[in-house]
């Protein structure tokens, strides 16, 4: 297994650690940081989430820079992204910090595109991430990070950056999903 794929696997392995800090109240108290009051466990969860999300950029950069792009990486990288985002949004819904309707829309798109990729892989085709899929991922990571950090910085100016990012993430998620199905409709037509 090459280094980019190992980095992707590390992202997956960080997910349960992230979830422990997000969902378990260790009674460590809170800290006030740049206008936001953040439970210390949420702050640690946010840092783990941001590090895990940063590995998405790192593995892609490393794979392209050293010509280590593989079919496994093209499949594993978006799967790792989906697992990380799913964990974050489901955890945030459970904490009443993320609207369930938005999680349903986002996760439905993720399952649908994963299904499309599975059908394509049945005929030996790999559907790589599109530019819209990448922007979708960035918007979801920013939305989750803003929520995990309790709208840090923006609390100082009373701007609901986290809420704005939820809507941007939902819009880009739906748009990129439609884009994947339009560009890859041949996969479904050929599978009949």
What secondary-structure arrangement, pairings included, does this model have?
Blueprint: H1 3-23, E1 30-33, E2 36-39, H2 40-65, H3 71-94, H4 100-122, H5 131-148, H6 161-183, H7 185-190
Antiparallel strand pairs: 1-2
Helix pairs in contact: 1-2, 1-3, 2-3, 3-4, 3-5, 4-6, 5-6
Protein name: CDP-diacylglycerol--glycerol-3-phosphate 3-phosphatidyltransferase
Keywords: Cell membrane, Lipid biosynthesis, Lipid metabolism, Membrane, Phospholipid biosynthesis, Phospholipid metabolism, Transferase, Transmembrane, Transmembrane helix
Subcellular location: Cell membrane
Notable traits:
7 helices, single chain, 192 residues, mainly alpha, 2 strands, two-stranded antiparallel ribbon, Four Helix Bundle (Hemerythrin (Met), subunit A)
**Main sheet properties:** 2 strands, antiparallel
Look at the structure and give the CATH class: Mainly Alpha
- CA-to-CA gap between the ends? 35 Å
Rg (CA only): 17 Å
Domain module count: 1
- Might you state the CATH topology name? Four Helix Bundle (Hemerythrin (Met), subunit A)
> What is the general shape?
globular
What structural class do the secondary elements suggest? mainly alpha
Tally the helices: 7
Mean pLDDT: 92
Order of helices and strands: HEEHHHHHH
Indicate the proportion of strand residues. Answer: under 5%
- The CATH superfamily is known as CDP-alcohol phosphotransferase transmembrane (TM) domain
């Amino acid at each position: 297994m090459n280094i980019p794929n190992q980095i992707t696997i590390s992202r997956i392995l960080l997910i349960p650690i992230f979830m422990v800090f997000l969902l378990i109240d260790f009674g460590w108290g809170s800290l006030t940081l740049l206008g936001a009051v953040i439970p210390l466990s949420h702050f640690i969860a946010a840092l783990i989430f941001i590090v895990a999300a940063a590995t998405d950029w790192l593995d892609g950069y490393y794979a392209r820079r050293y010509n280590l792009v593989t079919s496994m990486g093209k499949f594993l990288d978006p799967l790792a992204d989906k697992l990380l985002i799913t964990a974050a949004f489901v955890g945030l819904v459970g904490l009443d910090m993320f609207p369930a309707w938005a999680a349903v829309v986002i996760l439905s798109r993720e399952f649908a595109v994963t299904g499309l990729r599975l059908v394509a892989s049945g005929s030996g085709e790999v559907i790589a991430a599109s530019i819209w899929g990448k922007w979708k991922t960035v918007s979801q990571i920013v939305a989750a990070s803003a929520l995990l950090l309790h709208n840090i910085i923006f609390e100082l100016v009373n701007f609901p950056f986290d809420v704005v990012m939820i809507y941007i993430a939902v819009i880009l998620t739906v748009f990129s999903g439609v884009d994947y199905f339009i560009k890859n409709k041949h996969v479904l037509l050929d599978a009949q």
